[in-house]
């Protein structure tokens, strides 16, 4: 088990355990041109990180999905790109603030950013090991992580059920 997903091997499923994460983020709403919206959010987070206090690592971003009926409609689908902070103190009010409870999940890195291939590897590992996942009562879950100075893209499973 890797704590906080330090460095992930390429296309190899690993269990990751995160402590509670305090995140600040920028929402991207609607599936139309999601790639462009992601790039703008990434650029905004990377450039503003230099001026913000309490950033844990400006080169690691998490993608979160809310859970709810709006996610099934292309115009209201939401993706939130986030950075971890140690504290919300002195963070501008226009950032979305989310606290994600501690959890374990299965993660697969894919340097090419292939969401489908990484997702299939996650699902195969969950089936092979007989592991169950659930969002439970969580409002938001991590769907992916970007390490811009490491392995690149990594796909996350929903939290593992104990």
From TrEMBL:
The record's InterPro entries line, in alphabetical order, gives: AraC_E-bd, Cass2, Reg_factor_effector_dom_sf
State the source organism's domain of life.
Bacteria
Q: Any idea where the AraC effector-binding domain is?
A: 11-161
Coiled-coil stretches are: none
A matching Pfam family: Cass2
SUPFAM superfamilies membership? Probable bacterial effector-binding domain
What is the protein's given name?
AraC effector-binding domain-containing protein
Species in which this protein is naturally found: Paenibacillus elgii
